[in-house]
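REQUEST ID: PR-0412
SUBMITTED BY: lab tech R.K.
PRIORITY: routine
TASK: structure prediction, single protein chain
INPUT:
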Amino acid sequence: MTARLRLWAMASAAVFTAPPAQAQLTSDVISIADQPRPEWAPRGIGLGSWIALPSVELGALATTNVRAGDRGARADIAATATADLLLKSDWGRHALSGEAHVRRSRYASFDREGRTEYGAKGIARYDISATDTLGWVGSYDRLAEPREEINAPGDARRPALYDQLRGTLTYARDTNLVQIEARALVDRRHYRAYTSFAGRQVSQAERDFTRYQGSLKLGYALSGSLSAIVAGSFNKRQFDQRSGGGVNRNSRGGTIEGGFLWRPNEHVSIEGRAGYLVQRFKDARLNDAKGLSLNARAIWNVIPRTSFRLEAARRVSESSAPTVEGQLVTTVKAGIDREILPNVVLTAEGSCDRISYIGIPRRATEYRAELRGTYLLSRLTSMTASLQHVQRSATIASDRFSGQRALIGIKFSL
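STATUS: complete
OUTPUT:
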């Protein structure tokens, strides 16, 4: 699964990346784990001016807490299979690609924990000029909400399903001195009804919503290594129906941030922005969210074949509780990528999420630690393995859990 996501991320980056700029505005320093390796990349199937990249990945996973419960953890093992088809253009100018995938998992003891997920994505880039591009991304996914997700219903007999439909339109301009990025996004989510352990059919219609968001990011190169950045965003979140008690959770909000991008050389990139965020709810009974907005990202490739990564962010997220405004989520993530051989990469990563519910004394802190590796056997075959530990402490017992997960997979490509 990790290899498939990495391949798709690389293809997406190839579609959206503008022509290289001489100034330091574009944060294009790439971690060693994500750097392209043409000598190991699948060639695909040539179809005239198109290239098809089909792949199949088979895997096995083991987990110590299959239902992510706060007590009575049960272990299990599962088999996984993923089929993926990527079709991309091979043009000198402009770009178009499409991807479809399906993933199936089946557990040995808890067969109800098995799930089938699928989706499709399309990406288009129109090169207006050497400095201007227009991009579009559209996707649909049928997903199973992970048991460990804090918003997932805890009484569901099977993992709850939801549909996500997203569309993004992006305009980017980079003149070596000034960078402009304008983006409009629509995110639609529909949560499907589930059956509880008691056999009762439970509707999740109160969670269905549509989010509209617009953002603008401006950068100005102060020197060959330092750029000033100003960014702002606006969003509107509209729920399909009111929750119990007639609470209207519709809201509007936005962020305004200022910061910098520092790239002293081709090995180091540090971007930091801080500002203010606000989310105002339509119902007077709900408290508005406001406070510090933060986005930071650093990559350091100074040591040969080794990358250090650091990320931090603070945002407003939706809550599954129908009478709660939402959550303020602060995330800090750090990682190290090490290239042992040109075809072997190891990654160690850790993260911490602090989740505060708006308006009520409910909090949670979640820690994740993961060790994973990728082994490229050939252009056609690769292997991945990972070991993950997750632990969440919380003021409410049902939000707490801890568990470990091990995964190994082999991927066959053409």
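NOTES: The chain has a mean pLDDT of 90.
REVIEWED BY: pending
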